[in-house]
Amino acid sequence: MPLPDLFPFNGDWAKYENDLYEIYLDTVSRVPRRFNGFPIRCRFNPATKGKGYGFWHIISEGRVEEERTPDLRRCERIRWIGWLLDNVNSDERISWWENKRGRETHVVIWIEEADFAVVLAKRTTSLLLLSAYYVKPHRKADFLREREEFLNAQKD
Hints:
Elements: H1 13-29, E1 34-35, E2 38-42, H2 53-59, E3 60-61, E4 69-70, H3 72-76, H4 80-87, E5 94-101, E6 104-111, E7 116-122, E8 127-134, H5 137-155
Parallel strand pairs: 2-8
Antiparallel strand pairs: 1-2, 3-4, 5-6, 6-7, 7-8
């Protein structure tokens, strides 16, 4: 089962950003999805430039909210988010595990051969889509270690 095509940058950032947002709405936020029985939600507040908060974490990177910068690798893979969520339990190329970040538990869904991951935060009654990104080479070792630790803990 092939991944969806990449969404190319057409040279006009404002139009591209708007097109990305429409894809995000149509393939991610407006589509009811569940993972392991929990509904997946998207964060909309606080909105920036009329676009939901979660969208910016899908298309940009950076630790300081006001200083996030667009990441074209994230942008071009925006169609992969819904596909990955829809196929996580039916495609053997996709793995998932839980990890801790501070006090939060996250679910990482990764298609290793494409170096792409979706990150969800566990909430009491749902999962919150936090981010989706191209997994850079320096991060792969962390992913492999985290996944192995989680899978080993499940066996105990």
